[in-house]
Amino acid sequence: MKISMKLKWLPFVCCCLMMAVTPTAANIFHNDINKQVNKDTLTKKELNDFWESTRERLARVPMESKVEPVNEALPYRKFKVTLKSFDGVTIVALLSIPVQGEAPAKPWPVIISNPGYGGWQQSVMLSECQRGYAVLQIFPRGQGESAAYWKMDKDKLTLQLNQPEGAYYQGAYADVMRAIDFVTTRTDLDSNRVALVGTSQGGGISLAVAALDPRIKAVVAHVPFLCNCRMAAGIQNSLVKKLLDKAQRNDETALHTLDFFDPWQLAPQLKSPVLISAGGKDEVCPAGTIESIVSRLPGEKTFNIYPALTHTSCVDFYNLSWVWLDQHFKKNIELRK
Predict the structure, then answer these.
(1) Residue 94 in contact with residue 78, Cβ under 8 Å?
(2) How many CB atoms lie within 10 A of CB 3?
(3) What is the DSSP letter of 248?
(4) Which residues pair with 4 in a beta bridge?
(5) Domain coordinates of the chain in residue numbers?
(6) What pairing do the DSSP bridges indicate for beta strands 76-84 and 90-98?
(7) Other Cβ atoms within 10 Å of 233 Cβ, number
(8) In this predicted model, which residue has the larger pLDDT, 215 or 8?
(9) DSSP labels for 56-95?
(10) Which of the four CATH numbers 3.60.15.10, 3.50.50.60, 3.40.50.1820, 1.20.58.2190 does domain 3-329 have?
(11) What is the pLDDT of residue 331?
(12) Is pLDDT at 282 greater than 80 in this prediction?
């Protein structure tokens, strides 16, 4: 097992701002994690039985994929993809593919991007396909372009917390698995080189789905949400606590339901290489919740801690992500099976 831990002690550019880094900020997450108790509240059988049942139900839904070219003045090809997913819900994805030119056609490695909690903000822009990847921006049910087919009248996290069956992220994770199903149907996409990339909610979804679906061969998760919800539910200003408190559902039943979708519970199953980050001043997705997951990942992992980073994008991590993906997908480095 390879673990690469990188602490950034020099000032760095993040969101076009120069921020000084202090040792105090770097240690914030240690205080949080020491105050919380991590518990395996689910048996492996409970977790596996639930997700095996979910996958079987998804497999029974015909995909009915529809791919429409988008006619825009772009230096790459763009398509709108509609798919039938879990429980027959229609979801939308946007696909971009580089222009091959005169070179011999080869299947492209694929990046599947998931949105942040707002539903629209994708971590990877379609234009990044020109780096030599196909980019598939998936909008899980009720989010972004998929909201035209399935609408929510409540908050996603707290939509249904009495039991895992019917909870929002059951369908959302299945939607991402359906996007992976779609990738495997295309001869111009390399189903052996598929990465999940996301920020915040997108990062949490990427970690969880990669643990559930071995077809994912690499994961990039920047300041991921949904991590160790039990810990987050007790940390002031965390998004999990705010949402649960607002819904008056910061209780054991709700937390038990969230356990089925929590990357902390699923992490031991995630065998593919992972690049993950945390911000020392991130109150939305506290660094301690993310660090607790890193320690449970059994495979190759690179964990970058940015002590002065709040819950936002980071130029350093974004640039590192492409170097890391290239190493795993373009230079024939052996991936874990």
Answers:
(1) yes
(2) 12
(3) T
(4) 302
(5) 3-329
(6) antiparallel
(7) 22
(8) 215
(9) HHHHTS----EEEE-----SEEEEEEEEE-GGG-EEEEEE
(10) 3.40.50.1820
(11) 58
(12) yes
Look at residue 26 and tell me whether its pLDDT is greater than 50.
no
Mean pLDDT calculated for residue range 143-155? 93
- Residue 304's alpha-carbon distances to 168, 246, 256, in angstroms, are 30, 32, 29
The answer for residues whose C-beta is within 8 angstroms of residue 84's C-beta and 6 or more apart is 61, 62, 63, 64, 90, 178
Residue reference for tokens 């070219």:
69
Q: What are the CB-based long-range contacts (under 8 Å, 24+) for 246-252?
A: 246/155, 246/158, 247/155, 247/158, 247/161, 249/158, 249/161
Token digits for 3? 């673990």
For 164, 188, 211, 215, the CA distances from 183, given in Å and listed in that order, are: 27, 9, 18, 10
E-only strand ranges, 99-165: 108-114, 134-139
Confidence of residue 47 (pLDDT cuts 50, 70, 90): very high
Better-scored residue on pLDDT, 23 or 188: 188
Strand partners, 111: 135, 195
- Beta-bridge partner residues of 151: none
User: Rounded to an integer, what distance in angstroms lies between the CA atom of residue 185 and that of residue 263?
Assistant: 28
Average pLDDT estimate for 141-168:
94
The H or E element containing residue 181 is helix 168-184
Residue with tokens 């709700």: 254
**Measured distance CA(4)–CA(302) in Å, rounded:** 5
Structure tokens that stand for 30 in this block: 């240690």
Task: Name the residue among 296, 293, 219, 227 with its Cα closest to residue 259.
Answer: 227
Residue type, 193: R
